[in-house]
Amino acid sequence: MLLVFFYGLVSHSTRRGSGAVTTRFYSENLYRTNVRTDFISSAHIASVGLGNCITIFLTDESCPDATLSAFLENTELTKVQIIHARTQGSQPCSTHGRLSTKIQRIGAGCESSKCQLHALGTYLESSIEEHDGLFFCVGCSEQEVHITKAYYDLRVIDMRLLDFEQLVWVRSLRKLEMVAWRHIRHGIVIVTTCRMDTLRALLLDIQSAYFFGDSIDLHFALEAGASRECIEELDAFEWSHGTKYLNRRIVPSGGPQVAIPEAFVLGGSTQFQIILEDDVRVSDQFYSWLKFVTLQMLDCQMCERENIFSVSLYTPRVVETGLGARSRLNFERTSVNVGDVFLYEVPCSWGATFMESYWLTALEYFQQRAAGVNVFPAIPKTRVNGWTGSWKKWLIELGYYRKWSTIYVRFANETSFSTNMLGKGKHILYVDEEMRYNYSVPLVKGTDWYASLRYKRLFETRIRRINLRGIADEI
User: Fold this and answer.
1) Helix (H, G, I), strand (E, B), or coil: what is residue 266?
2) Phi then psi dihedrals of residue 91, to 5 deg
3) Does residue 280 contact residue 418 with C-beta atoms inside 8 Å?
4) Is pTM, for the whole model, over 0.90?
5) Where are the alpha helices (DSSP H) in 112-195?
6) Residues 67-123: pLDDT tens digits?
7) Which of 132, 278, 290, 355 is most deeply buried (CB count within 10 A of its CB)?
8) What domains are there in the chain, each with its CATH number?
9) 3-state secondary structure at position 228
10) Do residues 312 and 354 make contact, with C-beta atoms less than 8 angstroms apart?
11) How far is Cα 466 from Cα 385, in angstroms, rounded to an integer?
C-alpha cells in the first residue's frame, strides 16, 4: 500500500561546485509500511571488493602518525601502503620511528608541483595492479585528485589532512566496513524557526566538523513566516560538502509535531538523516561518531534483532518518560558504565541520525496520529501518554509497540556529541539553572572519545537496554 502525505514547501537548492541555483516545489512525501533493517546489502558491498591493499597518499607536509598507526595496526586489512610525496629540500616523515620503514617516498628530487604530479602519475602507472583497494588522497590538490581518480575512479577518498588526523578509530573497523565507506551516506536536516543566535552557533559548529570527504546534502526546513534576514543568511551560508537546500513552509506547521516529520528527506542515495533543531549545538566530532557507529551497523545481527533505528548524539541526564515526575537517570543502578554504549526505548530529539527505512514506517504512523487515530493502546506506566503536540511522543509509541531501539553512549559527566541550548519554543517557556544542568551537557572535544570506549566493537558484546522508566536489563 502506498500512501501520500501532502504539504506545501518551497525548495531552493545550491549544488556544490556548480554555482547553479534551482527552485522547485515539493508537495508530497512518499512512504511505505515495511521496515527494511538491512539498510545496505552486505552482499552488495562484498561484491564490490576491497582488494588486497589500502593506499594512503600523503602530500608534502603530511605526517599524521596516530592515524597511520591506526591503519597499520588494523589486523583486518591485508596490506596498507603509505606513499609520501616530497619536494626537494622537504623533510621526510622521520618522526614515525618504526613507521618510517612502511613509507614509500616519491618525488624527492622535485622542485615544482608539476614534477611531483609527474612522479605521482609514474608511480600509479607502475603499481596499479598491486594497489587494487581504496585510495586515501590526504590533503591533495585538485590536480592530484584528478590524476588518482584516473587510476582508482570511485575508490578515491579525498579528504583534508585535518580530517584524516581524526581517524584514530579506523583501527577498529572490519574489512567489509572499510569497503562500505562510500556506500553508507548521511544527510543533514536543520529544522528552524529562525532563532538566530542559536542557529548561527549551530552553523558554526557544523562548519567546524570533520566529514572525511563524504558527500553530505544539507537541508534547511524553515517554518512559515521565516524572516528575510534568516532566509538570506541561510542562502549565503557556504556548504562545500554537498548540495544545500532551503525549504520554507507556506502554511504554518503548528509546531514540531508536524514540522519534524515533514522535514525528513526521503529518497536519493542516503540511508540516514541527521535531524538537528536550531537550538542544539554539536561537537566537531559529531559526524565522526555517527560514521563510526553506522559503519559497524552494517551486517550487524544485534542491530537487526534489536531494531536499532537511530543513533543519538546526546546523552540524557533525566528520565522524562517514567510514571511520576522527572528524575535523574541513575547510570550506576542501570550498570551502564562510563565508556559503554546502551540501548534506550526513548529516541533522541536533541541530535540524532535516523534510518530512512524505519522513518518511512514512522511517517504513516505520524499521519494516522495527526488525524486523531489511536493506533495502539496507551503505554503502561509512563507519563508520555499525557504529552501533547509532540512528534517524539508518537515515535515513542510506535517504537514501544514495534520494539525499536536507539543507541546511546555514556561518557563522564554525560559529555556528548550534541547538547540542548534550551531555546524558547513551544515546549520551553522559561529556563532556570536547574534546567540548564539537567539538559545542557558538555560537548566532546578531540578524539579522546574513542579511547574512552570500553569496547571498540560496539555490537559484539552484551549491552544494557534502558526502558521508558529508566530501568535496565541485559540483552
Assistant:
1) coil
2) -90, 140
3) yes
4) no
5) 113-127, 142-152, 161-164, 175-179
6) 999 999 998 888 888 888 866 555 556 544 556 667 787 877 777 778 888 888 888
7) 278
8) 3-37+184-474 (3.90.550.10), 48-177 (3.40.50.80)
9) helix
10) no
11) 19
